[in-house]
């Protein structure tokens, strides 16, 4: 672990680490400030709140499905550091639009007609931003790190991402929407500055013609990647993880409001616990595997994740806030509740075991193929992941429309861990 942490002092890793950390922080600060404000201050219907949360997730996810093939081609055939600079520059006008939407919502000016669509447009644009940055943050590692540093570097990137998600999520629940508007723009500017410090990472393979037909390029990319058995199993396993994570992230705000009768600070806390738990799991699995890329612990990790989801479900079913209708528990009220500790512990267990499951699988993506193909492999993974996340969002909407309450929807996420464990076991047997 100490050897991995030393990477944070190296110019070949530190600027990339800080840049991706700031990007993840800004994504989540903006998204959660938007979702929490709308759920707690605009809508008063559980179905409308779930729909809005799901649509916000879809807006951030659909670009990965449509544009990952192009982003992977660019990352493998152009200087990755140059793309980072362009992408981080684009984040500044995107956040100007997002900040304008937040300020309009705060002022109550044309909230549903102008402010919410403007925020959704910014969310979609940030999804595009992340689509072009996503393949680079993993694919650049084999160029800048030694072979025995890649798993540690991947773990640090994953842990840093979730620490950033944690910080952005917590801050979104604590600050006012107008302060969030200023913060997202300032962080976008800072991210551009750190992005300019990333060392050059020129293309390794010979240049090839870019395919701008996004559907054909996506189909070709996925088919060219998924025929490799270990990649197929790793990508599908990661996709199931993100389906589970997407459903949980959609459910948290309406669950906190309508089942736990708690305020937006608790919703922010839940999202933050999930994020920090995945970061902890990322570090723990790197320590257990001692730098070796292996799926050894993946099946047991995802089964544990499913078990913790079931426990979380039953605790929510037993929950009685004791609050009068229309009033919400404060943070102090929540902490004093008899079931709060076990509820938080089960949520933390979901996240830690999830992080232990997914991090080694990401390392498979960049170590299985030639370095010149790494970005396209990550992009193919992003396409499949995004499709799975959209399906997860649609299933959540379908269950809500069918009258399945948010607590019982948790059992759907638990059931998916069984299939994930089966796939992870096949990967372990095939590769280890």
UniProtKB/TrEMBL annotation:
Membrane topology: Multi-pass membrane protein
Cellular component per GO, a single term: plasma membrane
TM stretches of this protein: 50-70, 82-106, 118-141, 162-193, 231-253, 265-285, 297-319, 340-363, 383-407
Annotated CDD domains: MFS_MefA_like
MF terms (GO), sorted A to Z: transmembrane transporter activity
Major site of localization recorded for this protein: membrane
Keyword Transport: yes
Name the record gives this protein: MFS transporter
Subcellular location: Cell membrane
Keyword Magnesium among record annotations: no
Keywords noted in UniProt: Cell membrane, Membrane, Transmembrane, Transmembrane helix, Transport
Gene3D superfamilies: MFS general substrate transporter like domains (1.20.1250.20)
Top-level taxon in the UniProt lineage: Bacteria
């Amino acid at each position: 672990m100490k050897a991995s942490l030393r990477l944070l002092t190296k110019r070949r890793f530190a600027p990339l680490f800080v840049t991706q950390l700031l990007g993840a922080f800004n994504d989540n600060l903006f998204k959660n400030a938007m979702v929490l404000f709308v759920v707690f201050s605009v809508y008063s219907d559980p179905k409308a709140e779930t729909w809005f949360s799901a649509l916000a997730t879809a807006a951030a996810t659909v670009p990965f499905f449509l544009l990952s093939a192009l982003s992977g081609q660019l990352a493998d055939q152009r200087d990755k550091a140059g793309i980072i600079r362009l992408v981080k520059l684009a984040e500044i006008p995107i956040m100007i639009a997002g900040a304008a939407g937040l300020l309009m919502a705060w002022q109550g000016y044309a909230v549903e007609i102008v402010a919410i669509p403007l925020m959704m447009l910014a969310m979609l644009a940030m999804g595009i931003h992340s689509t072009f940055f996503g393949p680079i943050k993993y694919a650049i590692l084999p160029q800048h790190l030694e072979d025995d540093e890649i798993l540690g570097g991947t773990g640090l990137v994953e842990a840093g991402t979730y620490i950033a998600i944690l910080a952005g999520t917590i801050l979104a629940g604590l600050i006012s929407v107008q302060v969030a508007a200023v913060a997202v723009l300032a962080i976008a500017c800072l991210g551009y500055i750190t992005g300019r410090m990333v060392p050059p990472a020129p293309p390794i393979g010979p240049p090839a013609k870019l395919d701008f037909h996004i559907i054909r390029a996506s189909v070709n990319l996925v088919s060219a990647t998924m025929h490799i058995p270990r990649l197929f199993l790793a990508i599908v396993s990661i996709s199931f993880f993100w389906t589970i994570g997407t459903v949980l992230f959609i459910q948290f705000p309406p669950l906190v409001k309508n089942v736990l009768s708690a305020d937006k600070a608790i919703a922010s806390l839940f999202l933050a616990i999930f994020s920090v738990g995945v970061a902890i799991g990322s570090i723990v699995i790197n320590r257990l595997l001692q730098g070796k890329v292996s799926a050894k612990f993946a099946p047991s990790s995802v089964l544990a994740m499913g078990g913790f989801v079931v426990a979380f479900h039953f605790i929510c079913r037993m929950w009685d806030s004791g609050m009068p209708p229309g009033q919400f528990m404060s943070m102090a009220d929540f902490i004093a509740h008899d079931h709060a500790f076990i509820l938080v512990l089960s949520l933390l267990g979901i996240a830690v075991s999830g992080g232990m499951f997914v991090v080694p699988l990401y390392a498979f993506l960049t170590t299985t193929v030639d370095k010149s193909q790494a970005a396209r492999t990550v992009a193919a993974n992003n396409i499949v992941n995004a499709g799975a996340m959209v399906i997860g969002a649609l299933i959540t909407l379908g269950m809500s429309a069918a009258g399945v309450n948010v607590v019982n929807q948790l059992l759907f996420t638990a059931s998916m861990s069984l299939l994930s464990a089966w796939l992870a076991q096949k990967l372990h047997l095939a590769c280890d």
